[in-house]
Amino acid sequence: GGHSHNDQLSLNLKIGKQEFVKDPGSYIYTADSCLRNNYRSVKSHFTPTVKLKEFRSLSVSLFQLKQDYTSRCLYFDGQNFIGYHEAYGMKVYRCIQVFANKVEIDDFSESKASLDRLPLVNGFFDCLVPFAAGYGVKENE
After folding, report:
1. Which of 7, 72, 106, 118 could be bridged to 45 by S-S, CB 3.0 to 4.6 A?
2. Which candidate, 86, 92, 131, 133, places its Cα nearest to that of 113?
3. Which residues pair with 118 in a beta bridge?
């Protein structure tokens, strides 16, 4: 509950030294609320969404999100993961399977609603914000 990002079921994926999916961090905390909220958004995380809609409003507080929904890890054995959250009023599932030569990520909902997520472009996560190089530091674009 203390993280205050809309990133339920998001993941980071690194194989060897190569990072394919990476959380962008948190550029800034209080000096620019718009930038902070961009980094807290579903649009900055590799998470299953419904039309890239936010799970909960980011405008209430910079350090709180209403977390009145359930999130659960149903199974994890080091190579397989199944979990869900109910932030959209229905269960949204993510299943991850790690094989010798690939990683499969499947997202689905109990209501068969159409889910989406930000894409992998050429095998890499295409985040909508630049990665935070450190607190309050923004790399040249």
Report:
1. 7
2. 92
3. none
